[in-house]
Amino acid sequence: MEGIVRDVIIALIKIAIVLGGVALGVAYSTYLERKVAGWIQVRFGPMRVGPHGLLQPIADGLKLFIKEDIMPRQADKLIFYLSPVICLVPAFAVLAVIPWGPDFYITDLNIGLLYIFAVASLGIFGIVMAGWASNSKYPMLGGLRSAAQMVSYEVSLGLSVIGALIFAESLSMVGIVEKQMTTGVWFVFLQPVGFVIYFICGLAETNRLPFDLPEAEQELVAGFHTEYSAMKFAFFFLAEYTNMIVVSSIATTVFLGGWGSPFAFLGIEFPRSLGIVKSVLDFGMPIFWFLLKVFLLMFFMIWVRWTFPRYRYDQLMNIGWKVLLPFAILNIIFSGLEFTLYEELDWYLFYPLAWLIMGVMVVFGFRLIKNFDQFSYSKMREEGIE
Amino acid sequence: MEEKGFGTEELIVNMGPQHPSTHGVLRLLLTLDGEKVVDCEVIIGYLHRGVEKLAENRDYKQNIILTDRLDYLASMTNNLAYVQAVEKLMDVKVPERAEYIRVTVAELQRIASHLVWLGTHAMDIGAMTVFLYCFREREEILNLFEMLCGARLTYNYMRIGGVSCDLPDDFAGKAYKFVEKFPKLIDEYEVLLTKNRIWLDRTVGVGVISGEDGIDLGLSGPNIRGSGVEWDVRKAEPYSIYDRFNFQIPVGEKGDTYDRYLVRMEEMRQSNNIVKQALEQLPEGEIMAKVPRIIKPPKGEVYHSIEAPKGELGFYIVSDGTSTSPYRLKIRPPSFVNLESFKKMIKGHLVADVIAIIGTLDIVLGEVDR
Amino acid sequence: MEDYIKVKREVGNRKDEMWYAFLQDLKAGLCLTLGYLFKKKITMQYPYEKSTAEWSIPLRWRGLHALSADENGRLKCIMCLQCMKICPDHCIKIRFSGAGKERVLEEFTVDLSRCSACGLCFEACPVNSITKAIVPTEKYELSVYSREGLVYKKEDLLKNWYDSVKSRIALEKAENMKKEEVKKEEKSVES
Amino acid sequence: MNPETMNELINYLIFGSLAFIILASAIMVITRKEVVHSALFLILCFFGVAGLYIQLRAQFLAAVQILVYAGGIMVLYLFVILLVNRKVIEETKRSKSFKKIFILVGLVLLLEFVLIFTGTVLKEGVKEKIVEESFNMGSTEYIGGILYTKFLFPFELVSLVLLAAMIGAIVLSKRKI
Q1: What is the domain range of residue B260?
Q2: Per-residue three-class SS string for A111-179
Q3: Which domains are present in chain C?
Q4: Which residue of A11, B207, D62, D121 pairs with D50 in a disulfide if CB–CB is 3.0 to 4.6 A?
Q5: Which residues contact A212 (CB under 8 A, 6 or more apart)?
Q6: β-sheet bridge partners, residue C136
Q7: Which of B129, B193, B205 comes nearest A40 by C-beta?
C-alpha cells in the first residue's frame, strides 16, 4: 500500500516537473521563434518587455488570458469549446514517454514509440473539429486541409523510423537510446535518409512552414483557428509549440542518441573525487545534452520557417504520397540490407559501403520518382505535357 | 436512394475586401470546387475617391498632389506622367538637369515599387524574410526621397516645367552608394527564390497568359513583357531623355508567374543601371523651365503615357483654354487594366494560386479605384 | 545593343538534377539566412531612439507648419494670402485688419486635420529673407487627443518655429550675414 | 485489506468505469442528432476499448487500436462527414429502410455474442485457460513472432488482399486511365 502511494507521488512529481518545464519551454520557444525571426530579418525581435524582451512570453500569456473570448453565434458550442483541449491534451500526453535523461522520464513503455504515434495522431481531431465547429468557410477549408495533410504525412512519418527501429530492436524509448549508447553510434549516421524524411514529415505534422497549409495566413486568414480568440486560441498556440518540442524530442531519441553526449567516444567520465558534484553532473549532463539537441532541432525548424516559401495544397499531397512515401519504403528495403552488412562487416568497410549505397539510393530514387517529383512536375508543365 | 443528392456542391468564398493578401481592399467572390477555383468575380471600388472628378475643380498645380495618391507606391512616376502630359499640352521645354533628376528619381521609384512587389509577392507565397529584406532596401530609397523632397510616400516633387527643388548636396553620393551595392542584394533575393524548388513549384505554370490574350486585354508593363511581347514605352516611344541611356528591356517567354518574376528582377537591375548612368552624367543648370505662375494651357487635348513600374500609365487631359483647371482629366491606370486579366488567369487554379496571381499582377488599389 | 533581351529561364535543367536531389537549393537559402542571423541589425528603437548614425530627420522634411520670425521676433508674414490660395485642402485661414503697409495679422490658422502635407504652401510663399514666412519644421509626432488639438493658431505656429532646429539655423545665418555686412561696410569704409 | 483484494478491487473499478464509458458513448453514438457529435463519441468509445486492451496487457493492440481506428479511420470518417451535405445525411437518417437493416444487423450481432459467450467464456475452466494463455499475447514481440511463424501464410494473404484493395482504390479514384 505504501509502495503504491510512494509510486504515485513520485510519478506526480515527475509529471509536474515535466509539464511545468515543457510549459515554460513552450512559452520560451515562442520567444526563440520571434527572436530568431527577428535576427534573420535584420531586426531585433521583442525588445521592450524586460531586458531584451525576456518577459515577452509572460506578457503575451497575460494578454491572451484577459482578452475577450468571442464565440461565433452559429458555432457548435460544445465542440467549439472542446477542440482546443482535444488539440492540446495529446500533445502533452506524448511527453509521458520521452526520456529526458537516463533516470528522468515519467514512464517507459515497451511500446513507447507506437504509443507516441497513436496519441499524437489524435491532435488532428482538435483541428478538424475546430474547423467544423466554427461554422465558417475559412476554418472549414483549413480543417479539411489539415485532415488530409496529417493523414498523409503520418504514413511516411511512421515508415521513416522503421529503419532506425531495425537497428534499435526495441520500441521502448529508453531502449532505443540505450542501444545507441551501447553500440556507440547514433542512428542518424546509419539512417540519414530516414532522418531527413522524418524531419520533413515532422514539419508537416506540426504544421510548420513550408507545410503550414492548415493555417496559411495569406490564403485562409488563419485557417482552422480564424474564429478563436483569447485562451482558446492560446491553447492551439501551446499545442503547436508543444508538438514542435515533441517532434524534436522524438528525433533526438530515435536518431540523435537521446541523452548521449556527442563526446562520449572520448570516454571522459567525471572523477569520483568530485563527490556530490559528480552525482549532480551525472544526473544533469545527460539532460543537458538531450535538451541541447532538442533546442538545436527546434532552432532548425524555426530557421526553415523563416527561409522558405510555402507549398501549395496539391503539391503538399504530391510530396507526401509521391516523394516521401516511396523514399520511406525504399529506405526500409535499404535498411534490411544495411543491417545485414552492419552485422557482417567491420566499421571501416561498412560505413563507406553503406553511405555509397545510400547515395546511389537517393540518386536512383530521385530519378525513379522524378516524374512524380514536384520539381520535375514543374518541368513537365514547362514542357507543356499537362 | 436518389443519386443527385451525392453530387458535389460549390463553395462560395468571399475573399476580401479585408483580407491579408488582397493588397488592399480588393474583393474577390470565389466559387470553389474543393480547392479549385471554378469562377471568380472581381469587385472593386472600395477605395474610390473620385480623383478624376476632383481634378476638374483644382488647378493644374494642385492636381499633382492627387496623382501622388493613385499608385501610392510609385508617386514619382505618377507625378512624372501627369506633369509631362501638361508640359506636352503647353509645349514646355524642360531644362537638362531637371530631366536627369526626373529620370533618376523615376527609376529609383521603379526599384522601390518592384521591391514592394517582390516583398509582398514572396510573403503571399510564404517567404516572410524576403519581404523584410526588400523593405530594408526600399527604406534606403525612401530616405533618399525624404532627403530630396521632405516626404516618404506622397512626394509631390515634380512641377510643370521641372522639379520643385534641386538635389541636396549629399544626394548624389548616397544614391551612388546605394546603386553600387544594390545588384548584390538582388542576387541575395535570387538565392532565396529563383532556384528554390518551392518557389518554382508555386510560380511555374501558374497564371499563364499568352501574348495575344495579353494584348487583347490591354495588359502592359512587366505583365505583358512576361508573355514575350516586346513593349515598353521607354523604348517604343521614348519620352524624357530615355533614348540617351544604355539599357535593355527583359522579356519572358511563357507568360507565367515565374516569367513575370524574372522580368521584374531583371528590370530592377536595368533600372539600377539607368540611375547609375544618370547620376554620372548629371549636368549643372536650371531645374525649372520658365512657366507662368498661373498655368493656363491653350485649348486642346493631350494624351501622354509613360512606363510606370506597374505598366503603361497614361493621362488624358482636355483643356478649354480659359480655365486654370482641366476641363477633363482621364487616367489610364496600369493596375486597373492589368486586373482585367485576373479572371482569365485564375480559371482552373487552386485557392493558393489566387494570391500568387494577385501578387504577380502587382496591383495597387489606390490606382485601380482612383 | 539590343533593346529587348530574353530572361534566362532555368527550370528543370538536366545539369541541376543532382543539385536538387541532395537539397542544395534549400541549403543555399538556409546558409544565406544563417549569415543574416549574426549581421548587424538595422532596427531603430523608436521612440527611445530618434535618430541613428545613418539617418536623422532631414531638414526638408514636410512636418508641422511654423510661422517664421526674424531675429527681432517679428513675424515675416506679409499677408499676401498666397499660401491660403494654393492650398488644395483649404486648411489655411488668414485674417488681417488694416490695409496697405499697416496690415496687422489677426489670425493665422492651420488645420492639420485637413492638411495632406503636400508642401505647396511653403513653396508659394513669396517671402525670401533667409527663410520663407511659412516653413515646414522637422517635427513629425503630431498625434493629439482631440481634433481641436490639430488646429494650430498663430501663437502655436510661432512657438513651433522657436521649438524647431530651423529657427536656430536661421538665427545663425542672420548673424553671419550681419557680420559679413559689417565687414563689407568696414571694407568699403577702408577703401 | 490485503494487497491482492485491493488490486482486484482496483481492477474491477477500472473495468467498470471503462465498460461504462464504452456503453454510454456507444449509446450516445446512435442517439446524437449531429453526426459530428456521434463521431466524437465513437472516438471516446474506441478509447474505452483501448483501455480494456491495456487492462488485458495487450498494449500493442491498444496502441494499434488508437492509431488505426481513432487516428486513421475516424479522421477519414470525419473528413467524409465534413464534405457531405447535411441534408443528405438527414435524409439518410430518416429513411425507414435503413432503420430496418440496422435493426437486423444489430439482432444478428447480438445473437453472435450470445453464442460466443455461451460457447466459451461461460464454460467451466475456459476462463482460466484464456487468462493463462493470453498473459503474454499482447506484447509486440509475441505478435511479431506469431505473425511470422504460425500465421505467416494468412499474413501474406492479407497483405495481398490489401494490395489488391489499394490498386483498386487507385484505379477507381483515377478519372482517366
Answers
A1: 11-369
A2: CHHHHHHHHHCCHHHHHHHHHHHCCCHHHHHHHHHHHHHHHHHHHHHHHHCHHHHHHHCCCCHHHHHHH
A3: 65-170 (3.30.70.3270)
A4: D62
A5: A305, A310, B126
A6: C65
A7: B129
If asked whether residues D115 and D144 sit together in one domain, one would say no
Determine the structural domain holding residue D174 and report its residue range.
Answer: 139-177
The DSSP output letter for A224 is G
Q: Which positions ≥6 away from B215 have C-beta within 8 Å?
A: B224, B229
How far apart are alpha carbons B101 and B108 in whole angstroms?
11
> B211 is written with which cell numbers?
501574348
> Do strands C4-6 and B249-251 pair parallel, antiparallel, or not at all (unpaired)?
parallel
CA distance A28 to A37: 14
What part of B 163-192 touches C (C-beta under 8 Å)? 164-165, 168, 188, 191-192
Query: Are D49 and D115 within one domain?
Result: no
Q: What percent of chain A has pLDDT above 90?
A: 0
* Number of domains present in the structure of chain B: 1
In eight-state DSSP terms, residue B38 is E
Q: Which cell is C191 given?
A: 577703401
- What is the residue type of A243? N
Which residues in chain A have their CB less than 8 angstroms from residue D63's CB? 111, 114-115, 117-118
CATH number at residue D6: 1.20.120.1200
For chain D, how many residues are written?
177
Residue A55 touches chain D, beta carbons under 8 Å: no
Mean pLDDT confidence for C33-51? 84
Question: Chains that contact C by 3+ CB pairs under 8 Å?
Answer: A, B
User: H or E stretch including B326?
Assistant: none
**Smallest Cα–Cα separation from B133: which of D31, D52, A307, D165?**
A307
Cell of B34: 474543393
CA A378 to chain centre: 29
CA B246 to chain centre: 22
The reply to whether residue A378 touches residue B126, judged by beta carbons under 8 angstroms, is no
Per CB-CB distance under 8 Å, the chain B contacts of D95 are 1
* Cα gap B203→B259, rounded to integer Å: 8
CATH number (domain holding residue B45): 1.10.645.10
Give the H or E element holding residue C153.
none
C-alpha cell at B94: 524642360
pLDDT class for B26, splitting at 50, 70, 90?
A: confident
Q: Which residue has the cell 489670425?
A: C107
> How many Cβ atoms are within 10 Å of A235's Cβ, its own excluded?
23
Q: Quick one: average pLDDT of A188-199?
A: 86
The number of distinct structural domains making up chain D is: 3
pLDDT digits (tens, 9 = 90+) for D116-126: 877 766 666 66
Look at residue A366 and tell me whether its pLDDT is greater than 80: no
- List the grid coordinates of A273: 573525487
D84 to chain B, closest Cα gap in Å: 8
B-chain CB neighbours of C27 within 8 Å are: none
Picking from D36, D61, D84, D166 by the largest number of A CB atoms within 10 A of its own CB, the best residue to mutate is D36
Give the nearest chain A residue to C29 (CA atoms).
Answer: A307
Distances (CA, A) of B276 to B110, B180, B268: 14, 8, 12
Sites in chain D below the pLDDT cut of 50: 177
Q: Which of C56, C84, C118 is most worth mutating to test chain B (most B CB atoms within 10 A of its CB)?
A: C118
Say what the pLDDT of residue A278 is: 78
Nine-digit cell string for A385 = 505535357
Q: Contact B129/A307, CB-based, under 8 Å?
A: yes
Query: How many residues comprise chain A?
Result: 386
Which has the higher per-residue pLDDT, C109 or D123? C109
The neighbour count for residue B97, using CB atoms within 10 Å, is 19
Contact C70, C104 (CB under 8 A): no
Residue B1 lies in a domain: no
Q: In a 10 Å sphere around its CB, with 0-12 CB exposed, 13-18 middle and 19+ buried, how is residue B251 labelled?
A: buried
Q: How far is CA D82 from the centre of its chain?
A: 23
